[in-house]
């Protein structure tokens, strides 16, 4: 009998007993087989059965062998009355409860479980991008260093090709684009690169060969990209440079009082949040400062850089409002997504850095601080989930003790969000989760509840640098 002639139920049952690598190899057999080999329920179950959470749960129960394992056929008859093995009905009920407690998806989230399994359990493959080269004044070639990195997906990946590009400022003052997926050229190759020195702010023409010292060494998030408008922002010491990615040309520059150490993501309808060494600033890039093509005011310098510095010293206009920091160097800025609309940014801004608190600002009341969350660790990265976090429910789910119906009700009825923080504490990694309320009023929105979890023993052996 051919594969296409098998009933759907029999085909799914066969796939249940195959290893993941064998399921992947069956995809070219036919369209029908490929459809079932990519079935979300099949790969969701494989993600569940191979997860470290499930293995730890089975070890705590003293039963390392998984019930209804995909490699072992279920018994054809009920066990004897005096047998300690659970009946098939109870095993099936327990498996469904465990699956509900493990399931990380939130209501409305669309998960490609085949891709999820590959990312969780597939072999690691490392591909290097084409190294950029630079030329000095004597004609010698040298490697150009990347001083930051961001992903650029034109039209949020809806350009018809699924284009994904890597974007980086180089140490010679140029902007470089790499084709990650190979949709517009060779995979990993340099797709485009601007002229050297485009990002320099205070260097005269003809001196671009020297190394790019304008990226502050403390800047960890120095590139921010707007996929829809095809613009990118680069932190160059105390200057914010906006670049048109279609032309790879500078369209605006903005100067700040101190060195820029971090940038927020670019979100539609809200200003860019800029973190400098001593303050937090809001930059409305819609009211950009145009780059002058001709220098009208000229003192003694032959280039615009000196003129800009002197003009700023004698500028009578007051400084725009900013939030001063009692402790220097913010490292990460998060625009909390709007409840129910994760693609839009709310008015809540969270800032972490080389200080023990996570700062909370409300954009409507900026620069007044709205609150803070004491961590005690040095937080390097912030992320969020669109579900509220409960310490009690999380512990019950970790032990697999919540019923499937209760888990479903908790996900549907849960209001609020979860703030995820990663950093370091006493030379070890620290992973922290905080539950945030979903009160509609400005006084309660985003305030910390009595729900927090901190893992500083087994999260990581070194500082956690990124969360997503």
Q: SSE layout and pairings?
A:
Layout: H1 8-16, H2 20-25, H3 31-37, H4 40-49, H5 52-61, H6 88-102, H7 113-121, E1 133-135, E2 141-143, E3 150-152, E4 165-169, E5 175-179, E6 190-193, E7 223-226, E8 231-236, E9 239-244, E10 249-255, E11 260-263, E12 272-276, E13 279-283, H8 304-313, E14 322-324, E15 330-338, E16 341-353, E17 355-362, E18 369-374, E19 378-385, H9 391-398, H10 404-413, E20 417-425, E21 428-436, E22 448-455
Antiparallel strand pairs: 1-2, 3-4, 4-5, 5-6, 7-8, 8-9, 9-10, 11-12, 12-13, 13-14, 15-16, 16-17, 17-18, 19-20, 20-21, 21-22
Helix pairs in contact: 4-7, 6-10
Describe the structure in your own words.
This protein starts with 7 loop residues before the first helix and ends in a 13-residue tail after the last strand. The chain folds into 4 domains: 1-50, Monooxygenase, CATH 1.20.1280; 52-66 and 89-100, no CATH class; 149-202 and 211-292 and 301-321, 7 Propeller (Methylamine Dehydrogenase, Chain H), CATH 2.130.10; 325-468, no CATH class. Helix content is 20%, strand content 28%. It is of the alpha+beta class and 468 residues long. The strands form 6 sheets. A 4-stranded antiparallel sheet has the order 3-4-5-6, with no helix packed on it. α4 (40-49) packs parallel to α7 (113-121) and α6 (88-102) runs parallel beside α10 (404-413). The chain is globular, with a radius of gyration of 27 Å.
């Amino acid at each position: 009998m051919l594969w296409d002639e098998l009933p759907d139920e029999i085909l799914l049952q066969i796939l249940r007993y195959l290893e993941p690598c064998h399921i992947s190899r069956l995809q070219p057999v036919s369209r029908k087989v490929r459809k079932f080999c990519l079935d979300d329920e099949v790969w969701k179950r494989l993600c569940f059965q191979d997860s470290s959470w499930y293995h730890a749960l089975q070890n705590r129960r003293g039963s390392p062998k998984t019930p209804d394992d995909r490699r072992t056929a279920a018994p054809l008859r009920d066990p004897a009355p005096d047998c300690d093995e659970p009946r098939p009905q109870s095993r099936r009920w327990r498996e469904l409860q465990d699956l509900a407690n493990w399931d990380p998806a939130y209501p409305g989230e669309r998960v490609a479980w085949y891709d999820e399994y590959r990312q969780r359990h597939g072999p690691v493959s490392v591909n290097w991008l084409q190294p950029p080269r630079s030329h000095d004044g004597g004609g010698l070639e040298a490697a150009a260093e990347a001083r930051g990195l961001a992903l650029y997906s034109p039209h949020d990946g809806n350009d018809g090709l699924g284009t994904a590009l890597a974007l980086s400022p180089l140490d010679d003052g140029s902007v470089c684009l790499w084709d990650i997926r190979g949709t517009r050229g060779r995979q990993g190759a340099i797709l485009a690169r601007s002229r050297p020195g485009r990002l320099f702010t205070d260097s005269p023409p003809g001196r671009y060969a020297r190394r790019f010292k304008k990226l502050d060494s403390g800047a960890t998030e120095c590139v921010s990209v707007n996929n829809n408008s095809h613009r990118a922002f680069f932190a160059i010491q105390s200057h914010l440079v906006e670049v048109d990615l279609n032309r790879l040309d500078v369209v605006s520059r903005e100067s700040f009082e101190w060195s820029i150490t971090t940038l927020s993501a670019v979100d539609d309808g809200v200003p860019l949040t800029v973190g400098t060494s001593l303050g937090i600033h809001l930059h409305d890039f819609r009211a950009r400062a145009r780059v002058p093509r001709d220098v009208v005011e000229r003192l003694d310098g032959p280039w615009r850089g000196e003129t800009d510095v002197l003009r700023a010293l004698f500028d009578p206009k007051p400084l725009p409002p900013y939030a001063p920091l009692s402790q220097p160097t913010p490292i990460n800025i998060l625009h909390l997504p709007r409840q129910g609309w994760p693609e839009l940014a709310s008015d809540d801004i969270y800032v972490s850095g080389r200080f023990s608190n996570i700062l909370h600002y409300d954009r409507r009341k900026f620069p007044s601080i709205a609150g803070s969350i004491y961590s005690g660790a040095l937080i390097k990265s912030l992320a969020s989930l669109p579900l509220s976090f409960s310490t009690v429910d999380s512990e019950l789910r970790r032990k697999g003790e919540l019923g499937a119906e209760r888990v479903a009700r908790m996900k549907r009825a849960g209001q609020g969000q979860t703030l995820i923080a990663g950093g370091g504490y006493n030379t070890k990694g620290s992973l922290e989760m905080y539950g945030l309320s979903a009160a509609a009023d400005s006084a309660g929105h985003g305030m910390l509840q009595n729900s927090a979890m901190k893992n500083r023993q087994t999260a990581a052996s070194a500082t956690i640098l990124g969360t997503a």
